[in-house]
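assembly run, all chains below
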Amino acid sequence: MTKTTVIEMVDKASDRIKRFRSRYLDEMPFISIERAKFYTDKWKETENSDLSYNVRVAQSMKNVFEKMRFNIDPDDRIAGTWTENFLGIPIDIERGLFNRVFEVELDKKSMKTFAKEGAKSFMSYMIEKYGSEGLLKTLDHSKKIGVTMPELGTDTLDTRKINPYQIKEEDKEFLLRDLIPYWKENTIADRLGKAFDESNIYPGQFGNFIKNLPRSTGQSDIVTSIGSALGVWQGHLILDHERPILKGLLAMKNEVQEVISTSKILSKREKEFLESLNVALEGVMIYSRRLADYLEEVLKNTSDPSTKAILNQMLQTCQKVPLHPAETFREALQSYWTIKTAVELAMPFNVHSPGRLDQIFYPFYENDIAIGRITPEEARELLEELFLKIMSHNMRPNSNASSDFSQRYEGSEPVTLGGLTNEGEDATNDLTYIMLEAADRSKASLNFAVRIHKNSPEELLMKIADLHYHGVSSVSLMNDEICLQTLLNRGFTKEDANGYAVTGCVDMCSPGKTGGEGFSSILLCRTLDLAIRNGDSQTLVGLVKNTGLKTGDPDKFSNFNEFLDAFFAQSDFIIKKIVEGSIIRDRLFAKYLPAPYISAFMQGCLENKRDITEGGAIYDCEGILFMTSIANMIDSLYVIKKLIFEQKKFTFKDLINATDNNFNDGYEHIHKLIVDLGGKWGNGNPESDELGKLATSHMFNETYKYRTYKDGFYAPFINSMTTHTYDGRISIATPDGRLGGKPFAASCNPYNVEKHGPTGVLRSVSSLEYEHVMGCAVNIRMHPSGIGRTNESKKKWIALIKTYFQLGGEQLQPTVVSTEVLKAAQINPENYRNIIVKVGGYSAYFTDLGREIQNEIISRTEHTMV
Amino acid sequence: MYGIIFDIQNYAIYDGPGIRTLIFLLGCPLKCKWCQNPESQQLQPQMSYFEEKCVGCCNCAATCPNNALSLINGRIIRNTSLCKTCGACISACPNGVMEKIGENRELDELVEILLMDKPFFDNSGGGITISGGEPTMQINFLFELLKTLKNKGIHTAIETCGYFNENLIDKLVKYVDLFLFDIKLMDSEKHKQFTDVLNEKILTNFSKILYKVGNERIIPRIPLIPGVNTDLITIQQIITFLHGIDYKGIIHLMPYNKLTKTKYEKVGMGDIHKDFGDLTDEDLNKITKLFEQHSYQVIINH
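ok done. output:
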């Protein structure tokens, strides 16, 4: 019996917090050119000097801190913005991930020209390859399937519906006329494209193929093979916030000086590096001093006594921290926020997650409470403000071509809560609970990753169950027992493993010690396609030959294991391509864009006298995201095993023809056979679970063979973000019966084949070997009745999670909202602005999401209760 | 040994203690007018037909080896005397219109499936709840299933309408840890009018089981059907009965679910579907209060 349960979404936040939230949601952010301008000024000025790159980077950024303007809002209790606006974004002009977006998408005309040029080069490629008839046939075929490349369209950055940005006219002019042209060919993004062209990374016809595909304006990722891509970011990380909070910047700068003066022999490179640290710390100090100066100025021009008091308090705080050690809860928060803002401004959109805030802030909170300096309610409201502010950094001016697949706030940057102390004791404290409350009340689209272990208090689990029941979908759970094993397997010390935190979306790291988790991705279904087609690859626009290895005609294989071996050979090959690509990228970062501002706040760099881009941090890692997708890959293998090898219902040739024709035109029966095949992954069927484990473990183990440019490790992450919808849109049908153009399964989710409830799903999901996986996202969508109102039913929900963890699950992120509510939110979004859902590994406001992701989320199996 | 089952549901959290797996056995001696699972009443497997999704392509009729199907006035009519529920029409249909309700399943294979969630039972104090239909309709299979589960240390519950031969009681109490026992109406004639059977046997069985197992192992479940048993006089009668036999345990109230029309239509029972309307929160509160006034703890199972 299913009953409609409507849970009222109560908004408990104060008016001040509500204002922050609604302004962050509703106001259109400004693109600020200040960072780009002041950075470029200094860069130009030092062009002909003999300064090293790291010193030039440090000085250029310091120039930004010397000249940028600030914004103080009447609602602020924590001060500091990264642009002159209440809501805005800086430009990473020298890394250049979005330069082309600005170049093209601020103007309808340039958008049209760009699209036209792309189409022209693509057409001539196609005509040369297939003739004009072949081109028409291909286009017609794709159209029939409903699979089309997402189009750039003509909605400019400031007029588009999803994730729009505005820019002042004079800023736009300066950006397009002076800044972008200056950096052309010299950004990391441009250099990477060129380095790939010059390397031998693309096999067979792939290089030619990829060169002629219509380009995207976004440059935040780049393909490394038909089955893999590479993120052009420096890498997600968590800064060492404890050091500046506890010691202050002045003391940290002295430490650098001391190393310089006490080191007997310093190489030129080391000297340059230490000098860059010195400049970087000065830069952040300038930022914090100028912020205080600005507060003083605002204060001078304020007459209202209550506003004055507020400003005065912020001024006192900012005059003290982060230059000096923090002594109060408020100062600790401000110190964190100043450092986070300044450093992320130096490397924008690099996703610098906060880490274990309940641990870092607790001593200050405990002391303040003991002497009556703050109440729990005041502390909670400050945290609500902080969470919303962290969220406000987390947006990116992506191309309009992907706007159907994106949203304003990426909702990653997880706050890590609970877990263990470095010594291995339960670390849950009062702030853990207060932060969970603040997560609920602020309704910030952030992840709150709660670490759960054998000795986690029942009260904490009940609190989480209660939040889940009330639709708080931003709270995810990490299984410490498995996570610790994973970290030990990758070489973390026991202490550092105990102290892990989550960055990016779901990526484990040792906070303040891990120099950056870069990310590549392996596209599993495309890799599988190489094995099916003997090294060729079918794309939307025709067959591309020799993009993989020649592993043989699978119809000649005598058993399934031979096929599996062919697949493994292809996946090994793709992983190798990822390694090659990421080394090229990391070398470029090390050479052209060192990161003194991050290095200054990362343990190991000062001790090793080496920048993080050179591997100065204690740990380093390149994540390989398993995309498009584990579930579709396992189901495809299962279909091949059962229907081709065991039951001999059809051949690989039939399967190829069927997927090429999207299971139409006489291949409907094959689709039906596939769909009717029971026991796919996600039903707790031991046979498909075992197959899933076998296939993934091979790839997991393969990652141990390589080291990164920074001497870090490669490790898998199972997290698709939104690529499962995007890649699905541009991918032909797959052997598991997924039709062309349809989304792949998200992250580590089964492909909606569940017939055995959440227990079946979790049995399947937990069957993989997570002790090799540095992070995964397991979405499970529950109707509120699946958690229930009573303590008794909530205890069952907890028992479900605990059992899943005992079975070996690594992570769980439930979205608790009913289909009917989501559908209503699509119709009347204005009434449902606060609904947060889990997308890939991150949270997002549902009404903020592109339509295709909304539909994908609605299509996920909803577990209701009987 | 085979049983005829029509569904298995995992992670049931409202049908006994802990996380449970529910197994539904086919066949019921009652014909409740509000029945939530009309497809479970007959003891033989049958085919359901979802007319709304049917496009009338007749692939099913062409495939049927027994010529049981024909297209009449745009809908598929099944001659049930010819149909052997072989399922060929299911595979033939491109739109998933046909489903088979009820399947013969080997005991051992079933037990294996039911035990897959054992780790979840163990952590939550859960187990397996056998429902129906009426589980005692397949009494030999039921006993074998219960015995097997007990031997494996699994907590067992049954959901029963209580209409069974009283000489089964001794054996049932030996294997069933918890009885979820439907009590609908005290007026026997009215009971017959709405369920097809008189209630004396049911009430006697309840009393006898209670006498043997005590308050902890039997829970009366009262489906609240608007206009049938939701008036306070009827509820008072139930309370008086429970008092009379010295029942002191908890009470499960099961508010009526009216969204069952499609279910009736799928098995050709659309014409007898009746909508009893909504149970108001006010009525539910009054009923709950009345029980609580008589010191009963109430759990409402939505």
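Residues 28 and 165 of chain A are 6 Å apart (CA to CA).

Chain A touches chain B through 31 residues (CB under 8 Å).

not gonna interpret more than that til we talk
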